[in-house]
Design brief:
Layout: H1 29-34, H2 38-42, E1 47-50, H3 57-63, E2 70-75, H4 78-107, H5 110-127, H6 138-153, H7 182-191, E3 195-199, E4 213-217, H8 225-231, H9 240-255, E5 259-265, H10 276-280, E6 285-293, E7 303-311
Parallel strand pairs: 1-2, 1-4, 2-3, 4-5
Antiparallel strand pairs: 5-7, 6-7
The chain binds S-adenosylmethionine.
S-adenosylmethionine binds next to helix 3 and strand 2.
Length: about 325
C-alpha cells in the first residue's frame, strides 16, 4: 500500500478535530509526523489504533495523509464516543439539528443566550441516566448536537465533565461563536468511514493489535508528584497505577511486533529527578520535545514545556 492520494491534498481540505478537548495534540503534530514508523509509508502497516482518542488530532492528521485498511478508536468517555459515532452514521441529520441550534442562538440577546446555554446544559445533564450508550438512536442526535453546542459556547471552549459525568463548565464570552461547521463535520464523517469506534478501557484494543498495526497512545497526563497521592484516591482518575498499567500494556503489545508511540507530559518539567519514564519505559526510545501548554487554569503554568514521546522502534 502506498500513501493515499490524499497525502497530496491541501491541509485546509482535511477533516480537523470537531471538539476542543483537554490535552489536544494539534500543536505536537509536526513532532509526531517526524517520528511515524516507516511501515506507514511503505505499506507494511495496515491498521491504525488509538485507544485514548480524545479530540482525535493525531488520528485525523495521520489517517488523511496515509491509507489504512482499518482503524480502531477507543475512549473511556461514553459521550465523546457517542458524538464520533453519530457523526459517522448520521452527519446530515446532525448538521440539520446543529444548524437550527446555531440559528436560534444567534438570534437571541446576550441575556437570552446565557439562559439558552444553561437550559441546554441542564437538559444535557438530566438526560444522561436515560441514554442508551450501546445502541444508536434518535436521542444520540440531540445529545451530540448539545455536546457540540456546549463545546463551542462554554468557557475556554473545553468540554469537561465532573466525576459524575456532569458537564459543569460556565458559559464563555464569545461574541459570535461558530457553532456549526457543516463542511468539517462532513469531512470528519468521511475520515471515520473505515473506523471502528468504541467506548472502552485502553486495554480493550489488544485483540486488534498485531505486527501490522501502529498504536498511538495519548493518555491523560501523568499527575505531578505533588498531587499524585491525592488523585490516586479517586477511583476513576487516571492515577499513577493506571500509568504503570499502561506501561505494562505497552510492553505486552511490543512483544507482538506492533509499532507503538506514546506521548505524555514530562515530569522533569517540575522535578528533574523524576525518572518515571526512564524506569517504566526503560527498553524503549524516549525523546523530549517542546510543546506549549495551551489549556491550564493556572496562567503561570502556560508556556513552553517538554513532552515525552516514547517509541518502540
Ligand atoms: C489526553 S486525552 C487525549 C487527547 C487526544 N490525543 C487529542 O489530541 O485530543 C486522554 C483521553 O483518554 C481518555 N481516557 C481516560 N481514561 C481512559 C482509559 N482507562 N481508557 C481509555 N481512555 C481513557 C479520556 O476520556 C481522554 O479523552
Amino acid at each position: 500500500m502506498s500513501p493515499s492520494t490524499e497525502s497530496c491534498s491541501r491541509d485546509a481540505d482535511k477533516a480537523k478535530p470537531f471538539l476542543k478537548w483537554a490535552g489536544g495534540k494539534s500543536q505536537l503534530l509536526g513532532e509526531i509526523r517526524k517520528r511515524l514508523p516507516a511501515g506507514i509509508e511503505d505499506g507494511t502497516i495496515t491498521r491504525y489504533v488509538e485507544p485514548f482518542i480524545g479530540g482525535g488530532a493525531v488520528f485525523f492528521d495521520v489517517s488523511q495523509s496515509h491509507s489504512f485498511d482499518n482503524c480502531l478508536l477507543l475512549d473511556a468517555n461514553e459521550d465523546l464516543i457517542l458524538v464520533y459515532r453519530t457523526i459517522q452514521s448520521s452527519v446530515d441529520k446532525l448538521v440539520g439539528i446543529l444548524s437550527n441550534i446555531a440559528y436560534e442562538y444567534h438570534e437571541l440577546s446576550p441575556e437570552k443566550q446565557s439562559e439558552y446555554f444553561y437550559k441546554t446544559r441542564l437538559a444535557f445533564n438530566e438526560a444522561k441516566p436515560g441514554i442508551d450508550y450501546s445502541t444508536f438512536g434518535p436521542a444520540w442526535l440531540d445529545r451530540a448536537a448539545q455536546i457540540l453546542f456546549l463545546n463551542r459556547t462554554c468557557f475556554n471552549g473545553l468540554f469537561r465533565v465532573n466525576s459524575r459525568g456532569e458537564f459543569n463548565v460556565p458559559i464563555g464570552s464569545y461574541k459570535d461563536p461558530a457553532i456549526c461547521h457543516p463542511e468539517n463535520l462532513r469531512r470528519v464523517a468521511r475520515a471515520l468511514q473505515n473506523a471502528e469506534i468504541r467506548v472502552g478501557d485502553f486495554e480493550a484494543c489488544a485483540p486488534s493489535v498485531d505486527s501490522r498495526t501502529f498504536v498511538y497512545f495519548d493518555p491523560p497526563y501523568r499527575p505531578l508528584n505533588k498531587t499524585a497521592k491525592f488523585t490516586s484516591y479517586a477511583s476513576t482518575a487516571f492515577d499513577e497505577a493506571s500509568q504503570l498499567r499502561l506501561a505494562q500494556f505497552f510492553r505486552q503489545l511490543d512483544k507482538c511486533g506492533a509499532k507503538l508511540m506514546l506521548s505524555n507530559s514530562d515530569p522533569k518539567n517540575e522535578d528533574p529527578d523524576d525518572d518515571f519514564f526512564e524506569n517504566a519505559y526503560a527498553d524503549f526510545t524516549i525523546e523530549r520535545v517542546k510543546a506549549t501548554r495551551m489549556i491550564n487554569s493556572d496562567a503561570a503554568a502556560r508556556g513552553q514545556i517538554n513532552e515525552v514521546i516514547v517509541t518502540n522502534y
